[in-house]
Amino acid sequence: MSTVESLVTTTDSGLRVLESLSADEIGAVREILTAAGKVGPTGRFVYVGLNEPDKAEVVAHQLGTAPAPERLARALLLDIATGASRDVLVSLTRGEIHSDTAIDGSRGQVPILEEEFAQVGVVLAGNDRWCAALRARGVDPAMTVCVPLSAGHYDVPNEQGRRIIRVFAFRQDHPEDHPWAHPVDGLCAYVDIITRELVDLIDDRILPVPEEHGNFQDPELALPGYEGLEPIEITQPQGPSFTVDGDSIEWANWRLRIGFDAREGLILRQLSFRDGDRDRPVLYRASIAEMVVPYADPSPNRFWQNYFDTGEYLFGRFTNSLRLGCDCLGEIHYFDATLADELGMPRTIENAICLHEEDYGTLWKHTDLFTGVSEVRRQRRLVISFFTTVGNYDYGFYWYLYLDGTIECEAKLTGIAFSAAYPPEGSPYQSEVAPGLGLPYHQHLFSVRLDMTVDGTANAVDEVEVSRVPVGPDNPYGNAFTAKTTRLASESEGVRDADAASGRVWHVVSTERTNRMGKPTGYVLHPQQTPTLLADPSSSIAARAAFTTHQLWVSRYSPEERYPAGDLVNQNAGGDGLPAYMVADRGIDGEDIVLWHTFGLTHFPRLEDWPVMPVDYVGFTLKPYGFFDRNPVLGVPASTQSHCCHPESR
User: How confident is the model at residue 15 (pLDDT cuts 50, 70, 90)?
Assistant: First the structure.
């Protein structure tokens, strides 16, 4: 077996080393750590997940030249009584602790526990200053809910070394009332969740609490006219075209595995495409490695609002259990996700991942003027998706694999936009969507980590953009234009921005394989032309989320470099992650490389986004470019008439 072939998904035991932790393994982690005295009565498991082996070790094992890598689980631990936290690796192979490192908080804290979120309301309910501030606004403390949020990092002296959560209040008029419609604004509490004390109270101004409810399930809010919509039924009488074996999926010419992680959610592994009698690797690993939601309101009680939903909140743990006919339509295969709860016990999210295929219109079509040949083929795609709810927002992440080798990732954003009281004098940083109710401007910025293996690990990136050709001897009529190609040689050159005016894209090419025309085989990354981080470069969020300041970062592969904002994001001052990874300026031409692509939305909320937001979409595309020797879907069979129209319409 060649090195390239070893990167291709198979069903042998060699790839079991990449499987997500099982319930038994999570239980074993808990037992080992408890027996070693690392977790006492006040100890909590913040995160438990597979510590993935080095790609080279996996490849060597698949080649048969090395034993299976040691199977390691990573556990982030927190003592909720003292705030002491640890980063522990447990060897499941040997049944013992592999390493144990104390976390001192100087480079960030472990992510926030759900238990800590729940305790915030208890802490503030007994605080006289907080309750007095609510009553000053005409709000009964018993009728409020507390919304705890990650604190960021702002060099506040009395926050040094503390585990801080910032808190907004919302009034809830009855148990079924959505409190987001009634923000109690001008007020914010800073809480030390370990000592359970109010560290600071920002009482900036008193604003009227918006009165109009936002209960989107109320029939009185519904616009009529949809009563005549008939059901759409998606059926595949002969069953779906994909096959599933554990975490392995085969569909058309695609082969891959999937995994799931509390931090990153859905992970795609070892995607390959069958080309004749060989399976060709394309992508070793893909995941949403980080996302951040920075807000634009600079008011004293809101300037700090920016949330890292993966690194601070571990958004995979909030994954929804999907429902047939509502979340997913058609012939569906569901995968459960097994995670650890905060006591270290395994818990299962049923139907966490949805797998199905769907029609996607015309694949190719031509009616020829000279031969009279008229042919059409239909496109379809394999859809692998999950949804997670992080507080007020709901995010769906959809990976699409197409018959022609295209890969697409799409984020779907819905839920309830974060609300504020709209000031009577107006605001340049909010949209008023109901009387006295504002939705602050913000961005949703995602970082996808793409560990590319286009025909192997020897890859490079070419930046390709259009170039105008001036009128001259070679262009006398001025109609010419061409493509300009620039090879990115090192990591310092690998920090790039999209440019709609030049149609800039990035080709990930093999430096060892060529197509029949003698050109490198490759895939091209097509970014969407949306803004990067809009906060000032001197801001705290620009330092903490440096990955959002450019659309592309290309780094040399290293197994320790997993997260674009660094390992411990919560209360991290910044500088970790991609800026630190790339400071060595390693070569990236003909190397094992990783692409980190930033994409996202800038949201100036509309009236139509309230009280629940219709889905917004954003994503990117990877398309084969010279990867195949010709159109790879000429062999797709034609659809028959009986599959194309309703009998009554014939």
Answer: low
C-beta of residue 559 within 8 angstroms of C-beta of residue 54:
yes
Instruction: Provide the 10 A C-beta neighbour count for residue 365.
Output: 10
Q: Any idea which of 149-163, 192-206, 518-532, 598-612 has the lowest mean pLDDT?
A: 149-163
Q: Which whole-number Å values give the CA distances from 433 to 185, 422, 442, in the listed order?
A: 16, 9, 15
Closest by CA to 549, choosing from 518, 587, 512, 575, is 575
Query: 516-558, pLDDT tens digit by residue?
Result: 999 999 999 999 999 999 999 999 999 999 999 999 999 999 9
CB-count burial class (<10 Å; 0-12, 13-18, 19+) for 217: exposed
DSSP secondary structure, 78-90, as one string: EETTT--EEEEEE
Residues marked active site are found at 309, 393
Structure pTM? 0.96
Whether omega for the bond prior to residue 281 falls within 30 degrees of 0, making it cis, is no
Per DSSP, the residues of 475-508 read BTTS--EEEEEEE--BGGG-EE---GGGT-EEEE
Q: Which residues pair with 376 in a beta bridge?
A: 365
Q: Pick the closest to residue 629 from 518, 535, 544 (CA basis).
A: 518
CA dihedral 270, 7, 59, 561 (to 10 degrees): -50
3-13: pLDDT as tens digits: 455 555 443 44
* Nearest alpha-carbon partner for 564 in 524, 598, 600: 598
User: What is the Cα–Cα distance from 147 to 54, expressed in whole angstroms?
Assistant: 40
With beta carbons less than 8 A apart as the criterion, state whether 515 and 546 touch: no
SS3 581: helix
Q: How far is it, in rounded angstroms, from Cα 161 to Cα 164?
A: 9
